[in-house]
Design goal:
single chain; about 180 residues; Fumarate Reductase Cytochrome B subunit; about 70% helix; elongated; binds protoporphyrin IX containing FE; iron; heme
Length: about 180
């Protein structure tokens, strides 16, 4: 086996916790939106929305921590046998995912502020996003952007997972850096 340098344990934990959260958010988001579209309301739809908002807002808060970690610590260097172009493509994809992991929840939060539908788990309200007025047309636009960003993020995540599996099967040391 090739010698590898892993990401620090806290960074790896944050990666897998957030992966689980985002992989929950996407199907829950699609499910609740399809129920709303079909005008199916009730305790299940309410619960899906509450969980989606609570987990989504937590992703936004954790992204602040993740960006601080990313800036303060340097990622372990790629093994030398990984071509330079592939390294740059991987970095580009990672940066794009960071951007979407900030923008997607921000637009969701802005949408529920404009709607307004800030109620979440246990009947608690999320804080309203500053400078966003209550306006149903604005909310509709913000939700459309939120949905488009979430779908784009899902495509990038699918590519990211495919690349991770490829590294796992090739045993080139990249997969083991994050486990
Ligand atoms: C990384 C974080 C997030 C992801 C990946 C995500 C993903 C999604 C997805 C896939 C949908 C379905 C879109 C559609 O079918 O058009 C959706 C809808 C929705 N999301 Fe999120 N979401 C995130 C964060 C948030 C946050 C932070 C909030 C609010 C606090 C939120 C509120 C909503 C609402 C209210 C809808 C339904 C919009 C509608 O009915 O048109 N989301 N989300």
């Amino acid at each position: 086996m090739l010698p590898i340098q892993k990401y620090p344990a806290g960074w790896r934990a944050l990666h897998w916790i957030m992966a689980l959260m985002v992989l929950t958010l996407i199907p829950v988001g699609l499910w609740m939106a399809s129920r709303a579209e079909a005008d199916v309301w009730g305790p299940l739809t309410d619960a899906l929305y509450s969980w989606h908002k609570a987990i989504g807002f937590s992703v936004l808060l954790l992204m602040v921590l993740r960006i601080v970690v990313k800036i303060r610590l340097t990622s372990p260097p790629y093994p030398e046998q990984i071509p330079r172009k592939l390294q740059m493509a991987a970095k580009g994809l990672h940066h794009l995912m960071y951007l979407l992991l900030v923008l997607t929840p921000l637009f969701g939060w802005a949408g529920v502020t404009a709607y307004p539908a800030l109620i979440t788990l246990g009947g608690y309200d999320l804080p309203a996003m500053p400078f966003v007025s209550q306006d149903s047309d604005l909310a509709e636009l913000l939700f459309e952007i939120h949905g488009a960003l979430a779908i784009t993020l899902s495509v990038l995540i699918a590519g990211h997972i495919a690349a991770a599996f490829r590294h796992m099967f090739r045993k080139d040391g990249i997969f083991r850096r994050m486990v």
